[in-house]
């Protein structure tokens, strides 16, 4: 584990919750290890550019947190509530985000290489230029999400989209199927039909068919 010098980095803004503040302070004074924030309420904190590698945010509340440029390598955020959080240019490599809430979160230019996003609510999320290479995207709600210029690499892409989902400039390759929802119904798109839907919206993604 990397050692951390006291005073090397501190949050620009602490959360309002006293228990979360104390946990953060104890961690900042520790010599090594990730932050144990399981179940804590860190909403509204500014943790931008912090090294939070291998931390535990399981079931934590991080609503409207500023995590711009933060390092979250191999952290566990399963079930975490990140609604409205700013994760611009954050490193989320190998992070577990299963069952997390990312509604209206900003992940522009974030690195989610080999991250796990199963059962994630990402309605209205901003993911411009986000790297989803080797990520698991299963049962993710991407309705009204901005995926412009996002990069994928043979990703499982079993997600829900609607006519508000933007994919212009998105590149790489994905496996389907995708569920397309409109005002009155939903239908599954895969293979050539999914490819056509992506192309019509300016995406450059290639839909992979057959075995993985």
List the helices and strands and how they pair.
Elements: H1 18-28, E1 116-118, E2 136-141, E3 155-162, E4 171-175, E5 178-181, E6 186-189, H2 191-200, E7 204-207
Parallel strand pairs: 1-2, 2-3, 3-4, 3-5, 4-7
Antiparallel strand pairs: 5-6
Protein name: Pentapeptide repeat-containing protein
Pfam families: Pentapeptide
Organism: Streptomyces olindensis
Polypeptide structure, described:
InterPro entries: 5peptide_repeat, Pentapeptide-BTB/POZ_domain. This is Pentapeptide repeat-containing protein. Pfam families: Pentapeptide. It comes from Streptomyces olindensis. With 212 residues, this protein is mostly beta strands. It has a single domain (11-212), classed as E3 ubiquitin-protein ligase SopA (Pectate Lyase C-like, 3 Solenoid). 10% of the residues lie in helices and 16% in strands. The chain contains two helices and seven strands; from the N terminus they run αββββββαβ. It has helices at 18-28, 191-200; strands spanning 116-118, 136-141, 155-162, 171-175, 178-181, 186-189, 204-207. Strands 1, 2, 3, 4, 5, 6 and 7 form a seven-stranded mixed sheet that branches. Strand 5 (178-181) and strand 6 (186-189) form a beta hairpin. The longest helix is centred in the first third of the chain and has 11 residues, at 18-28.
